[in-house]
Structures
1.
Amino acid sequence: MVSPQLLLSGTPHTRSPLAEACQRGRVLALFLTPPYQNSCPHISAVTSPSTNRFSARSIKTENEPAPKSPENEAALSRAKSVPALDPGRGLFRGKSPSPDPSPLATTRVRSPSPKSRTPVKVPERFKSPEPPQSSTRNPERVRSPHLADPVHNGSASETNGTLNGNDDMEYSDDQNSTRKKVVKVVRRVVRKVLPSDEDEYQKPQETAKPEGTKSTTLSRGFSFKHDTVKTEDDISRDIKQVKQRPVSMFVNTGAVKAAEVKKQEEAPLSPTEEAQRRLMRIFNAPLHTDLPKPVPVQAPEPRGGVQGFCSRVTCQTGSVEDEQIALLQSSHAAADRSQVKTEEQIAAEKDWYGSEKVWLVHKDGFSLATVVKTEAGALPEGKVKIRLEHDGSILDVDEDDIEKANPPSFDRSEDLASLLYLNESSVMNCLRQRYGGNLIHTYAGPNTVVINPLSMPSMYSEKVMHMFKGCRREDMAPHIYSVAQRAYRNLLTTRQDQSIVLLGKSGSGKTTNTQHLVQYLVSIAGSTGKIFSAEKWQAVYTILEAFGNSSTSMNSNASRFSHVVSLDFDQAGQVSSASIQTMLLEKLRVSRRPESESTFNVFYFLLSGADSSLRTELHLNHLAENSTFGILPQTKVQVHK
Ligand SMILES: Nc1ncnc2c1ncn2[C@@H]1O[C@H](COP(=O)(O)OP(=O)(O)OP(=O)(O)O)[C@@H](O)[C@H]1O
């Protein structure tokens, strides 16, 4: 299962990559600002461009000054007492946090939007439904204007049926049953002719409606997910989803994916889905047996100079951590060595080129083949004869379906840009070979591709960090720490802003890698007066995650907002302040959450933290026990110093 990829770039900051990234969707960005800059003007480059109209509008609205009103003034005065989330005025700047930071921290990490929110005029049809009218009331008062006249054709009454269910008392039973039948038939026909998303969306609600639950007074054009009475099962299911998260992230995702794959086998796939499945097949396929065996894990001898490997850590103990270091070192050394070829290798490569190896691209991935030479005119134009390597079968295929293969020495190439033949199959083959050897990071020119390992490898530790400290990019194996190191080094040598933008689909590891970047920078650079630390960052992020993360079909702890982290450095190269700006929070999830996905984590945390009297008071006493999330009431408030 797996392998969403993640593209990272650690290049000197310019507006264009960020703007481009933002146009593509949700991104994470990390800015490093040298000492001469007190504020970071680039955040606007992240916030303003967006192709998502809804998001763009909400940002714009939120940033506009609000009209003066008592409420707004109160909000403004509140905002004044809270440090703004300007990049230059970081959360961690200045004094250490007060001993009881929890309420303040929550406010301080808020997106700056509320203080200037413009009241939105809600169109009449989008307003919350009125409470159901009592049947003793005068029907004239509650009747919808659409039903001023008695309706006999059924369809019209269906459109408004839920608005005036009680009004129908004036009809006789016979009329009612006939009407209902007609409504059913019309509804069925309409659904068949015009199957819409909305219908699909409403279907589960109808089936899930518990017996005895009255229809809610909703217009057909808009409905709230929670307007149907939520059963204990629904709530417990949501709780379970969150509970399962820390235990087995990928088992969950895998189960969902497996179910999806089954479904998709029946339905035609979109090009994106098809590409995703092809990717999964490639990464799940066993490694090609003809390829050279992985280089034995052993630390190379430390060498100095520009081309030498920057080896600060030697492996003595043989722990898992050391193995990882040795693996990185040996793969880098092997890549280095591959530039100097022995006579044997040169001869083997000559053979390779002489036999003209190609990749045959097919729907399951690509297969190695050799072009069979034929006489001119023996094959129709545009066709080529090949012999597949794995079973020796001869095929006539389209020229467009083959791509040139690189010699095996390029299989674990550290930089995709250095491949002799740069095509999709060769790139995938290189990534696949590296992934099979536990090497999830690969350079792609100035960028770095990271493949989600779906496990917790020991490639992130202080020891590994130390290995990268002070090194140059060419002396280091590809790693997320080398991205951070390169940005830090550039910052110190050029005194220019640096940015690292993380791109990738949901679940590809943007958040995880941001954590590693921050951790690396703060532990390597240090922090002035310990104002900033990895623990403080983690504490802030815990709160952000509670309010902005939820379980989705792609990721059981998906961030439903974008954020920009800025680190400011002083003359000594230490972190002097940090800030985080959040944007594009998927607020709609509160009122309209997608089927089989949860709402924001904080709701489940609150439920699990409520004591029994509060639960009884709120009629929540039938919910699962407090320990559902492993958060006990007395320990649920954690103060991070
Ligand atoms: N390099 C990695 N090493 C270990 N685990 C990883 C790595 N990258 C991702 N993961 C795991 O994959 C899961 C998803 O990662 P993460 O939440 O960072 O993805 P994301 O891109 O931020 O997703 P979203 O956009 O939905 O928020 C996490 O459980 C994380 O532990």
2.
Amino acid sequence: MNPRTAEPYLSAPGLASAVAAVVLGTLLWNIVRNILTSPIPSSVPGPFLARITSKWILLVDLSGQRAQVVDALHKKHGPVVRLAPDELSFAGRDAVKAIYGAGATVVKSPAYNLFGKRGMFQMQDPREHRERQRRIAHIFSAASLQQTEPLVQAVVGRTVATLAASVGAPVDALHWCRMMALDVAGAVLMGKEFGAFDGDGAAPVYVRHLDNAYIAWALNGLAPALVWLLERLPIQSLQRFLAAREYVYSYGEHAVQQYLKTNGRASSRRTLISKMIAGNPETGAEPLPDADIVIEVSNNTFAAVDSTGNTAAYTLYRLACVPEWQQRLRREIRASGAKEKGFQYQSLQALPVLNAVLVETLRLHPAVPTGLPRLTRDATIFPDPDKFDPGRWLSGDGAAVFAGTPVAQEMTLVWGGRGPRACSGQYMAAMEVKLLLAQLVDRFQVGLQGEATHGEMEMTAHFHLIPKGRRCGLVFDDEEVSDETT
Ligand code: HEM
């Protein structure tokens, strides 16, 4: 061989072919391995892609359409559907019992490890989860949460005043509902509000970091190798974006330190952070180490903000769409005398129409969907399932039928899961949303800003439900707010 004419390296086309061959080979190998090692019998129906790769459902996740896609697959294929070579989805009442019922042994998906740091929310091992609950469940009891009412009332009052200041003009109700949920979480869980209503009305910087953290966590799930690589690129804006995952915890750490500096460890303040720091004197459960307290207050804060904020906004949106129910709710609130009692939660908690409006909104827009629409829009359980009809939760004489209906069990899922993994913040969220609704509906006629609001409120889901336009254009009017039926 003549060393002058021989090519010492692979030519560019040769290199490209080699890379293509390796990529194709790896892809084919993964597909064959997925098919051969799938523990799911080939007779289980589902889309073709679900047989060969788990990446397609992750892409559906990223597009925000998982809940709708899974619901459509069940409508087409029945109660058991393949979503990936190693993932199934179940629908129907029997599945609810088996997965969430008493004695069920199904554990949370490893996907929960993607969301931030390991606290009660992420723990999969039932023993570890039980132990964590033993240490902190007391702070989420109804009695403990009732004590936070003055803090919640203060923030709700600020939200109502802010919306009242824009009376007659279009306002982004989603923004203000999120700000309400943020400040309530700050006051109750971190010992200090975020100041969401101070200044020019822009969201505190925490919110931008939280939004980025969700995207970065999701990206980590889809392509961990890519995130590893991105973390090593010297691009400041990229590193700031990725650092959002840490920011939500450094915020929590700062809040806990500040709290301890101001209040010490044995404060009688009626906040959840005080109780977490003090432990449970009744059972003798010792407090968690400070590092775990930071994780729990941080996790619960981000679990509280979008869930409660979106639910409040969707409820107002639905009431704006259906004035008859708005009127009926107004009549109930006025007849209850709640206003004369300063809208204390006790006077609102059990109002049947208020409850029905909230539950029906959650049925259509479950704030943490996790695929729930496959149950909540099941026509065999809820006739005419896409219709907003709070009447399904009321008997003919207007009393609540929630507790006794056959669908009640499914509905507890919508509200916040069931069994040992049920939502710890249900009471807090219900208090917040009901206080807000009662005061707004009593005082204002809630209307749509225009047809565009429907597009804004189309649902996408990235773990949390997120309105597509990230905005909810409404108008609050205070003229002729009568409770007469038109
Ligand atoms: C309307 C508001 C809310 C809705 C619809 C909601 C819904 C849910 C749902 C469906 C789950 C179960 C998720 C699953 O099975 O993976 C859940 C879990 C959880 N929620 Fe909520 N949530 C709301 C508000 C809150 C608030 C205000 C907090 C905190 C104060 C909170 C804290 C949590 C926590 C810590 C868990 C995990 C519980 C565990 O695994 O032990 N949520 N929530």
3.
Amino acid sequence: MAKEKIEGCHICTLVTPGEPQVLLGKDKAFTYDFVFDRDSQQHEIYSACVEKLIEGCFEGYNATVFAYGQTGSGKTYTMGTGFDMNISEEEQGIIPRAIKHLFQGIEHRKGEAQERGEQAPEFKVSAQFLELTNSL
Ligand SMILES: Nc1ncnc2c1ncn2[C@@H]1O[C@H](COP(=O)(O)OP(=O)(O)OP(=O)(O)O)[C@@H](O)[C@H]1O
């Protein structure tokens, strides 16, 4: 059982239905580009927040996805960097989804060029992975 449940912690946030807004307690509201409630699935987060960034890379745009939050808040889970080999496809997080999307996009563009009788474009992919911690 999760440590929070054992310690009797309560949920202290509420998502305003239909709004990208989080309510903290009774009177503090925070609005963001997107807000996902507890029952959100990995694929929903990917399609809403990341998919377009990968497509943007093919147009020459840079993109950053940054997970920030207190310990145990779900950064590793959401980013999909736990590299648990037994994880189901549904539960895969942002990074494996983004990598798959990127390489499928490359193959697709090469295939399209070949179909048009053009020279296949060249792609160079380099990867860096950073995990910053400031544990007290
Ligand atoms: N959306 C979710 N659905 C199901 N389980 C989740 C979800 N988010 C987090 N968890 C689970 O909650 C626990 C803590 O999450 P996670 O390790 O991702 O937190 P974290 O923010 O990376 O923590 P830390 O900063 O300590 O590394 C893990 O067991 C993880 O599998």
4.
Amino acid sequence: MSRIAYFGPAGTFTEQAARRLAAGRELVPMETIPAALTAVRKGEAEMACVPVENSVEGPVTATLDGLAEDSPLVAVAEALLPVHFTVLTRPDVDTIRTVASHPHALAQVRNWLERNLPEATAVAASSTAAAAVAVCDGEYDAAVTAPVAAQTYPLRVLAEGVADVPDARTRFLLLSPPGPQPEPTGADRTSIVASTANRTGALAELLTELASRGINLTRLDARPIKGNFGFYRFFLDFEGHVAEARVGDALAALKRRCDVRFLGSHPRADGVRATVGATATDSDFADATRWVQAVRNGEQA
Ligand SMILES: O=C(O)C(=O)C[C@]1(C(=O)O)C=C[C@@H](O)C=C1
């Protein structure tokens, strides 16, 4: 059976996403996001499931940095999970002095903690489930976890449905080594990382290549190129599939301008169909290509 590495341990939100994206496969928990990616790069797992962005806290930087460096991986599927938390403690604890969780989770319950556990010190853990393990081990008094962790660990539920922002969501990717792309569906997302020269207008030029081909951007993040202060990589997600003419044409234009790493084209979890700019459909591109060929052949009408 194929192995899917996921950002664990058992009981993370990522485990739930992996169950949805890779049902029936063997799920292997990894302590960190880089470890999950490395398992795929070393051939120890076929694919990896990791979080990529949260609607409150934004990008999961370990995932972005891990995708920009080392051998390429591509996203073949995504899942979008609603995020509300359960606060767990040991049955023997009566005063909560420390509360641990993943930094993304702590940021999403900051107001709740101020109101309900004002005396408690928040401590960063490697994941929500790692915080639950640390509470079991007596390291901390409480953990902010995924609801499923209440079934995974022998802890007492202090609060449920905790979220400062209602309707918060996290998006997760299923990543594999480069290979055949999932078929286009009309509701796809393409992701790239682009490293431009540091000069006036370089980013604007990249964005114009997309805009002028009628491509709608869905995310733009910048991450520093480590060891080179002031230099950045840009992570771009946009609507459409590499198999579509406007996307292929835009990627070729970007490649001429800068260093581009393709991070995959896959169906969107929310099923939102791509808005295709006027004159940017596949048949518009095919007509234009035929016309150029006719000109070259001296056949222009
Ligand atoms: O720690 C977990 O449970 C995770 O799956 C990670 C993660 C994240 O990186 O954003 C996933 C969803 C929540 O937003 C909080 C934490």
